[in-house]
Amino acid sequence: MPRVLLIEDIEDNVLLVERVLTANGYEVLHAPDGETGLQMATDERPDLILLDLGLPDLDGQTVASQLRRAPETARIPIVVVTAWPEETARQMVKAYGCNGYISKPIKVATLLEQVASHLR
Amino acid sequence: MALAPSDNPLDLIPASKFTLKELTTIYNQTRVDYLVPMPMNIAKMTEYIHVYDVDLENSFVAMHEGQMLGLGMLGVRSGRTWITRLGVLPTSRRHGAGRALATALLEAAERLGIRFTMLEVIKNNVPAHQLFLKFGFYEVGELLILRRPPGPPPVYPFGDAQWFARPEALALLDSRPGLPPWTNQTESLNNSTNIFGLKVTLDDGGHGWLAFQQGRYVLARFVIHTMQGDPATVGRALLAHLHDKYFDLDTQTENIYVNDPHLSAFYEMGYVESFRRIEMYR
Fold first, then answer.
1. Mutate to test the interface with B, among A14, A33, A58 (most CBs of B within 10 A)
2. Which CATH number does the domain housing residue B209 bear?
3. Which of B24, B32, B146, B252 to probe the A interface (max A CBs under 10 A)?
4. B263 and B233 share one domain
5. Is residue B126 located within the same domain as residue B92?
């Protein structure tokens, strides 16, 4: 079963992602902030990371840059979740070596499509 | 000038009556649907209050029937105040809470005898922008928030570089002209930890300096100034030295004016725009 680490602080988004992904055959791990996310990514080595850009301790860009720097997590696909305008999101994804993005509010179809495409 | 008393039935309670946990919670709740929510934890809120001289006695939480609906904070420095963290729960907007909070903050500034107030509003946050225009604020400039992922600079460092510890770095700030945005004022850096400085002198005599904060993962709180020469070239030299030394750190620069003469150097070094703010005065 593919394992997805969700780094997200907003409870409603966590519930939505957990329900949708669990129902579609994924195991979901959850970290409520950036520091916990970095630790869990290193310890658990998930198959994919869903990363909210707005976190209460470290922001998403900092988390992404640390994930990319650490050998244990450098190759894990990262899909960012953001309410930013499309162009800004694209630029950040490229600059920080992430693999894709999902716009907020999260659409179920986009979530499943993004997760599936980066797990192939 | 006294502000008209509000008819709003909301209770406006000084933020000093609440715990930092409560203030952090209400702040995060007010911004949950923002394009750039910038959530905080208690440690970040504590640092924010300290670094930006937020006066909790003169900051307010809007309450209605025992429920927190919104928050507005007031930074206070010599001869100036700063409205910040103003927000209302998404479900409670359009009922006058934002206006009541802004009124309370401006009245507090008046009680302190300060008639000059600054603020920044996220660009495209139309309701907030409109609210402040109605209060008589006028636009001063547009500000950029830039990010740069870790990595070496794309150009080899050039010019003679001198690195400075905190006291010398803070002393550099005194040579700046004008009034920078609140976040970049001397007091903000003075209140911050791990401040360092860098001065570069070029072969053609051009020289300038950069003050910055070195965090665990991020370089931040940039103040950049060219004393002589072409700011784009001096800026390029400063940033090349900085990112050569700290190649493993992420970078965030906050509130750089869109017409800052160093801006091309930032883009050349791989910075990307996160979002923009509008600076306003009253």
1. A58
2. 3.40.630
3. B32
4. yes
5. yes
